[in-house]
Amino acid sequence: MYQGKLAQLIQHPSHVGELENPSAMAEVTNPVCDDRLRLSIRVEDGIITEARFKVYGCAPTIATGSMAAELIRGKSLEDALRITREEIDRAVGGLPHTKIHCATLAVDAIWAVIDDYRRRNPV
Fold first, then answer.
1. Which of 119, 39, 105, 41 is nearest to 76 (CA)?
2. pLDDT tens column, 34-92
3. Which domain holds residue 61?
4. Does the predicted TM-score (pTM) go above 0.85?
5. Could you tell me the CATH number of the domain that includes residue 75?
6. CB contact at 8 A, 49 and 80
7. 17-49 pLDDT, tens digit each
8. Is residue 106 within 8 Å of 87, Cβ to Cβ?
9. Which long-range contacts (CB under 8 A, 24 or more apart) does 68-73 make?
10. Is 58 a catalytic residue?
11. Which of 35, 44, 92, 100 is most exposed, with the fewest beta carbons within 10 Å of its own?
């Protein structure tokens, strides 16, 4: 059903799991389809040095969760917040129109995990 890079990410996602002692963790849910995406990060000196994800949902959510974890690694918190659903969509090789909400869920998870980090580490 899925082809190209999207199919590869679905079959062989990277950054799967949860970090031990993360700097922050968040889980978001799509209220329409009930997909869930959990993202955990480790932050050192304002840079996301590690990220892991877990998914309960459809195959494209696995791909976008994997790509979200990949894209935020090595970025500052501020740069990670600039990642868009369009960027995630392009990075996975293009989602079917009916699955673009998976990229939105990934962006929501990035925002939520950074919000959790900032709550845990007030300036």
1. 41
2. 999 999 999 999 999 999 999 999 999 999 999 999 999 999 999 999 999 999 999 99
3. 4-120
4. yes
5. 3.90.1010.10
6. no
7. 999 999 999 999 998 889 999 999 999 999 999
8. no
9. 68/37, 68/39, 68/106, 68/107, 68/109, 68/110, 69/14, 69/15, 69/39, 70/14, 70/15, 72/41, 72/48, 72/110, 73/15, 73/48, 73/49
10. no
11. 44
Q: What is the C-alpha separation between 61 and 34, in angstroms, rounded?
A: 11
The reply to whether 102 belongs to the active site is yes
Catalytic residue selected from 33, 47, 58, 100: 33
Query: Which residue of the set 41, 72, 91, 102 is catalytic?
Result: 102
Q: Looking at the 3D structure of the chain, how many domains does it have?
A: 1
**Cβ contact 38:109 at 8 Å:** yes
Yes or no: say if 102 and 68 are a contact pair by the CB < 8 Å rule: no
Tens digits of per-residue pLDDT, 12-24? 999 999 999 999 9
Angle, nearest 10°, between helix axes 59-72 and 4-11? 90
